[in-house]
Amino acid sequence: MENKFFKSIEQKTGVKMNDVFALANSLQNANFKDEKTVRSVIQKVSQIANKKVPKQLEDKIVNSIVNGDEKLDFNTISNMINKK
């Protein structure tokens, strides 16, 4: 049943669940006050979502997360990317 659920999500979004799980695992011990780490996460989310993030938007997201204005999770970054 769980497998059907994930397959359904993959078909609807075009995002492979293995990619999402790999990203989630990489976030567990990451330092989100480190600009380089946050940029790396944004780039990974951008790749998974198949959406280009302009440098100016990336800078805005990084500053927001590093300064503690936003929490770092897939939904937050995805929403910021989709606002452009």
TrEMBL record:
Organism: Metabacillus sediminilitoris
UniProt protein name: Sporulation protein
